[in-house]
Amino acid sequence: MELLFKPRDPKYIGKGTLPFGTFEDTNEWQPLTRYLEKGAEMFPDKTLFSVADRDGNISNNFTYEQTNSWANQVANGLRGDFGIEKGEKVGIYMLNSPEYVVSILACHKTGAVQVPINKDEKGERLAYVINYSEMIVLIVDSESVEFIEEIADSLENLHTIFMTGDPDSVPKEIAGIKTLSFSTFKNYSSENTGVDVTTKDAERCMFTSGTTGMPKGVSRNHGGVVLTVRGFIQQHGIRSEDVLMSVLTLGHANAQVMGLFSAIGAGASVVFFPRFSASNFWKWAAECGATYVGMLGAIAEYLWAAEPTEWDKKHSIRTVLAGPSPRNLEEFQNRFNTRVIDGYGSTEMGMVLWKDPEDQRLGSSGYPMEGYYVELRNPKNTSKVMRPFWDPTENPTPPDEAKGLLFIKPLIPHTTLNEYFKDERRTTEAFDDDGFFNSDDLVAAGIDGRFYFQGRYSRIRVSGENVDPIAVQDVAMQYDSIQEGIAVGIRLPNVADDEVKLNITLKKGASFDPIEFSKWMAELAPVFMIPRFIEVYEDGFPITSTQKIRVAEIKEISDKTWDRNTTDLKFRTR
Prior knowledge:
Largest sheet: 9 strands, mixed
Helix content: 10-25%
Shape: globular
Structural class: alpha/beta
Distance between the termini: 43 Å
Strand content: 25-35%
Number of helices: 14
């Protein structure tokens, strides 16, 4: 299939070239590590990636040649002595680091399936991901070891753990599981593996919000990486002299695909930071020479709320990917002297919608990208396709009748959801008989041809993470004093992300302390699942005459609603 690479206004195009072309012919696509190998030959001394420390200092840079050689050593080691063949699962559970980058690339080179684990997973959920994915090798950093030790006795398939950091601090085993230093891989060949990996092969199994309380494994192929890289390079005008920047975890598709893989695809460079800092963000961007940065969720709001500094415009960031865009978009762009390019994507489908940088229409997520066909359907009757009637030029706020569920049909094989891992029923239900995927997202379509993201339908998004309310309820219901719990998402004014509100009833005679409950929940679940708001309904939930819970009412914040932000209680992500 031939795709059209759209021309861009020169002011939105970076300096340099596209050494591997524009990826227009899908028949010529190759896994991204093939382009890494070409880059190692064509420009061996060019920096591919850097990783900063927690203070934003960059003390190490890795060239294309160094990265390729190191990834080969890891890949050859995994293949040679640790049972990793094509299709085997390799888990990665750590903070952003050089070892994280080369582990991803090593998986590509062996044909293995990478299983990146959210850095904030812990306890039962962490054990579930490790066991359910059937990974046999897990790569961790020293900060993650304590979380592995807590669940090690329940791990089933894992036979080797590799640990980064000081080799002398690596234990010989963790609960009987052989544990080795990541430096072990230095003993293996740095030559390319030569494994026949194609765009049709599985590339990742990434666990995201589930509807049964536990995360679900989204399996994608290498073709999906190339499709998203192609769209990103096109929309942001990425070229070989660009420096991409990410403050997001490599456990997310955003940092991987629109950071590492896009840098490789454009022959460019990328810098990873292990954390986000609103006060240092633009300073870090200036110091690393970044020309693009990716944002998710409320990052833009945090940046806007931060005190102005000399660095607000003292940087070279040409474009920003924000999903969704800041609500005060024009003011944001003026203050920080950059261009925000909105888009819409998902773990399952990749980047489906992109806004053109030349498009000045506010609030839009843009148009469908080549490789996808989309339509809106009535949320109450998904067999009914909705026709656009809303004119955004007359009314910037879409009426409820213009909002529908976004259904997506992939047009290029091996580019979107391959399967929900080991869940045939869920995979079958995700697509209708015509091959359309139900995104579970509400979108409005204007008669201008643009699409306008409105929010999640049954899920919520907190701190850039998809959160299933049922998963929150399942954890909360384990608390001794709670009789029943209902979690809902609340969208506060002028904030892009949701907040979780937990509504509960108590067992007879039970007492409840929201602070103690929150501390308890923090031991079991990631920080983004801990409710900000909690309300106790002493007389039961409000119900209708037909005995249904008044959902709109429990989504309200009343004088009886406890707000964690009014306390000194703070939880830090890793």
